[in-house]
Amino acid sequence: MHFSDVIAFFKPHKTVPITPWRADHRWQLSLSRVAILFFGLAIFGLGDSLLVQGDVGNAPWTVFSQGLTYRTGLSIGWATAIISIFVLLIWIPLNEKPGFGTLSNIVLIAAFIEIGTHIFPKQTGTLAGVAFALVGIAMVGLGSALYITCGLGPGPRDGAMTGIHFKTGIRVGRVRMGIELVVLTIGWLMGGRVGIGTALFALLIGQSVAIFLGIVARLTRK
């Protein structure tokens, strides 16, 4: 394989590809589709836990979850699940409908963040912390690509973002930025960890998801 072939293999994808396991509606379940969904959400949760354990700054929503743990005494997994449920309530006035993937997102990501924070050791050095953050961002990208391509419904945060976009006409990127800034600020004020990991996540997560969507598209292309 030539270097140009390697570059082409990791080229970011511009859209969500149609995969062999993609559902026609949000409750069309099959063993293989559910297995891919669950695997993707597990990888996503473990990736997020690496950012937590790297201790150099979390993703914005995890900053919020971590801040909530400091204020309530909840574990980070439970805090993540409770926040997801409250975000899901925002769907009601937005006329958004959850799918199997939406509900699975709430349970599995929270569970695997909790598992990951017990499996992975907390880092004390910046270099190791940044390495944890980078691996975590890659895993969140992979997990996102897998669960999104199942077509079983967006996670609570993504559904709220698209719902607000459709209701208000505000560009989806601006809606996402606004939501993330609000939760990041609230989480930081409650004591959540903000740092270089947060900046790396903001800069790299979009590309990470796009790269893995491209890999999935190329591996499943007929």
Automatic annotation (TrEMBL):
Membrane spanning stretches: 34-52, 72-92, 99-120, 126-152, 173-190, 196-217
Domain of life: Bacteria
Keywords: Membrane, Transmembrane, Transmembrane helix
Pfam families, per database record: DUF6198
InterPro entries to which the protein is assigned, alphabetical: YczE/YyaS-like
Protein name as catalogued: YitT family protein
